[in-house]
Predict the 3D structure of the following.
Amino acid sequence: MRKIIHLLLISCLFLNCGTYLLLENQEPNDKTAFQNFVNLTLLDSSIGLVHYWPLDGDLKDRIGGLDLIAVNGTPTPTFDRFGFPGGAYYYDGAGGYHQSSAQGPLFFDGTVSSFTVSAWVKGKFPPGNNGSEFIFVSQGAGLGLQLYAFSAGSCSGILRAFTNNGGSGDVDVGTACGVYPEDVWYHMVFTWDIQTLTGSLYVNNVLVRSGTFGVNRPWAVYSFFQLGRSDLSSQLFQGSVDEVRVYNRVIFPVSSL
């Protein structure tokens, strides 16, 4: 019996040594693969980035110089998605919103290039059924990201992105009704692929809706870029916005986190 136990111990010892050596040899490969993944993600997050508003207590565009200004009031700094104070802006829906200091990106008309709009949002869904309410990212009347409700009774809320040419709608991509609760931070990414005429909406890195559009271009975006408001409605957004990015190409949603 003593010999059997001795043999088992020796076998375990050699097995553990082999496992250790295997893991030791694998570790550099895993580390390299992880570093390559991080590098590719960082690279993807910077290529084509033309505007970036961190909204960390100021209104600076860190990339394109298209700084924002406060209009009809002053949205207040608030806690961001990590709980840090002053890392986002709160819009009370009573008057104050942010607007670019000059014309927003012209390629938002859908005829020039692909693009991506990314933002973090937390807020209320509107009480009524007006499709132009609670738009928190917009440009003119032709582009918007919003918290949307069909009606107070039949729909508790949709996360939606849309475009129109000023008279007729075009892209309309949104989540299923009632899936996402109020007052929770969501990462919304809208992409327009001009090669395939595809509009897509991602929420928290998950594709929720995609389709072929583009029959009603150019979209009516020849105006200011705005946060907390849209030219489509006098009903202002009530909630918080953070980390707004604009790319002149389609990106992987995870790259805009």
Remarks:
- The chain has one helix and 15 strands.
- The chain has two domains: 1-46, 50-256.
